[in-house]
């Protein structure tokens, strides 16, 4: 019987929850994974749910109404390729396969070409929101054939998170566009998390605040009227308030080495692949910070050989400093979104994807990890100027950052004077300062290149003129 409207392959927590989400919105779902025990136990676990547990991949395909809509929630890389290979001979013209994992977008482009040549439709779709999002409303970023999208759209819109700006899903563009937008989402996620970690460190070590006290600050910052309010701020407030069995903050007992699955690093890879490449120093700093944190043994050794000076007790106005930290976080966060949006725009131009920047901001307003109040302001900036090259060129963001920049500098100075690393916050500040400096010192860089390698230079009084060489030495 071909009565299932959707099929889900891969029944880890994300696959299981997306299947449940689809079913609860009225779409009967066929489920399958290589391990039959898993299929049977999922069907048994959700006995009241309209799941059809298929025995074989062929049965699974047969149980789907046409055009078949198959969501793959398998591990990125080889497993996506082998599942797609297995499906290919079983599918018919017009059927749609969607890879909902975090795949490298060039793999998606390759897979799209392969399926398109076979008359099939392939989508690379970023899914954000973790297990709760998958079950009750994720943000989804699909890329693929636009006409085929119409067959998937009703269900995707139904299961997505909803905000006052609509369902958190949109057609991002052809082939790798969706996975690229999701990858940059993750880059921003890394940067935002790193900024929050730095703020927590500054409040803890400079202001002598404990986790519970910092939790209160984050909870306050998550108010409806605060421009910094976001899901990450919200969960940080909750995490910092959690007690271990002995009543002490549990977060203080978590090993300080951050892991990563690679999407932050990929974001940097894409930024460097662009021509000209796109500076995303805040995102780069976030990836480096995770890597550096993982060198725990070396850090411990270094802390003995080159110990930091003890941090003196803070004697200034604590409430005012917390206010400055808030503003520094906001300014740095604006820069981090500016870098991410810039990268998406560059990739979209490069690959002719025609990604809508405003739509990208819109679908991040709910469901995903970086959902934040700031996204409303970002949407408005694109309303004011559709082809805005950098958020910092928007008059509203520009005046907001200009106003809070002194507080931002104050916090970076405080941290740096105390030997507390704030790589994301300080690199955002350097990005801001460099971006708004009409004349940078790279005249000297050019002169050096010409001096040691005859690489030539252009003249300030003739910026579009010919390249010249000078015998400097
Ligand atoms: C999301 C997340 C998710 C990602 C985790 C962990 O949007 O729901 O981005 O896709 O897998 O955040 O990523 P790392 O292990 O790299 O931190």
Report on the architecture of this protein.
The chain is an alpha/beta fold and 473 residues long. It has three domains: 6-175, NAD(P)-binding Rossmann-like Domain (Rossmann fold, 3-Layer(aba) Sandwich), CATH 3.40.50.720; 182-435, N-(1-d-carboxylethyl)-l-norvaline Dehydrogenase, domain 2 (Orthogonal Bundle); 444-473, Single alpha-helices involved in coiled-coils or other helix-helix interfaces, CATH 1.20.5.320. Helix content is 55%, strand content 8%. It has helices spanning 13-24, 36-45, 57-62, 78-87, 105-117, 130-136, 146-159, 177-206, 211-221, 231-240, 263-273, 281-294, 296-305, 318-351, 357-363, 374-384, 395-417, 423-435, 442-453, and strands at 6-9, 29-32, 51-53, 69-72, 96-99, 121-128, 139-143, 162-163, 166-167. The longest helix has 34 residues, at 318-351. The radius of gyration is 25 Å and the shape is globular. The mean pLDDT is 97. 6-phosphogluconic acid binds at residues 102, 128-130, 186, 189, 259-261, 263, 368-369.
The total strand number stands at 9
Structural class, from secondary structure content? alpha/beta
The chain-level mean pLDDT equals 97
Ligands in the structure? Answer: 6-phosphogluconic acid
Describe the biggest sheet? 7 strands, mixed
Strand order of the largest sheet: 3-2-1-4-5-6-7
Low-confidence stretches: none
Say which CATH homologous superfamily of the largest domain is assigned.
N-(1-d-carboxylethyl)-l-norvaline Dehydrogenase, domain 2
Beta-strand content: 5-15%
Taken in chain order, the helices and strands follow as EHEHEHEHEHEHEHEEHHHHHHHHHHHH
Inertia-based shape: globular
């Amino acid at each position: 019987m071909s009565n299932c409207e959707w099929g889900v392959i891969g029944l880890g927590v994300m696959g299981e929850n997306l299947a449940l989400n689809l079913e609860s919105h009225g779409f009967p779902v066929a489920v399958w994974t290589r391990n039959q025990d898993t299929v049977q136990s999922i069907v048994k676990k959700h006995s009241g749910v309209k799941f059809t547990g298929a025995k074989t991949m062929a049965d699974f395909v047969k149980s789907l109404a046409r055009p078949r809509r198959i969501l793959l929630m398998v591990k990125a890389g080889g497993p996506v390729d082998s599942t797609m290979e297995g499906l290919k001979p079983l599918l018919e013209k017009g059927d749609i396969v969607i890879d909902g994992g975090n795949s490298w977008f060039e793999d998606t482009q390759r897979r799209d070409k392969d399926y398109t040549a076979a008359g099939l439709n392939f989508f690379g779709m970023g899914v954000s929101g973790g297990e709760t999002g998958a079950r009750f409303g994720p943000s989804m970023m699909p890329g693929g054939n636009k006409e085929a999208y119409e067959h998937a759209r009703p269900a995707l819109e139904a299961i997505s998170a909803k905000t006052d700006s609509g369902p958190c899903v949109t057609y991002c563009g052809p082939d790798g566009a969706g996975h690229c937008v999701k990858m940059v989402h993750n880059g921003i996620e890394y940067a935002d998390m790193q900024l929050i970690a730095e703020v927590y460190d500054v409040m803890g070590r400079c202001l002598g605040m404990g986790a519970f006290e910092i939790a209160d600050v984050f909870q306050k910052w998550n108010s409806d009227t605060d421009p910094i309010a976001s899901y990450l701020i919200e969960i940080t407030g909750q995490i910092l308030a959690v007690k271990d069995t002995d009543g002490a903050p549990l977060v203080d007992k978590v090993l300080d080495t951050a892991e990563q699955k690679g999407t932050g690093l990929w974001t940097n890879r894409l930024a460097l692949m662009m021509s000209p490449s796109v500076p995303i120093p805040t995102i780069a700093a976030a990836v480096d910070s995770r890597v550096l944190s993982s060198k725990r043994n070396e850090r411990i050794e270094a802390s003995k050989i080159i110990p930091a000076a003890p941090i003196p007790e803070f004697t200034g106005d604590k409430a005012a400093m917390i206010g400055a930290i808030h503003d520094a976080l906001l300014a740095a966060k604006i820069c981090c979104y500016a870098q991410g949006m810039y990268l998406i725009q560059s990739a979209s131009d490069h690959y002719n994807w025609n990604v809508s920047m405003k739509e990208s901001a819109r679908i991040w307003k709910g469901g995903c990890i970086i959902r934040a109040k700031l996204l409303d302001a970002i949407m408005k900036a694109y309303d004011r100027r559709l082809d805005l090259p950098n958020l910092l060129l928007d008059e509203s963001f520009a005046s907001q950052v200009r106003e809070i920049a002194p507080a931002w500098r104050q916090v970076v100075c405080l941290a740096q004077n105390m030997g507390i690393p704030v790589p994301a916050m300080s690199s955002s500040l350097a990005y801001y300062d460099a971006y708004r400096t009409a004349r940078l010192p790279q005249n000297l860089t050019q002169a050096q290149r010409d001096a040691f390698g005859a690489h030539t230079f252009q003249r300030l009084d003739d910026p579009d003129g010919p390249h010249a060489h000078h015998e400097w030495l």
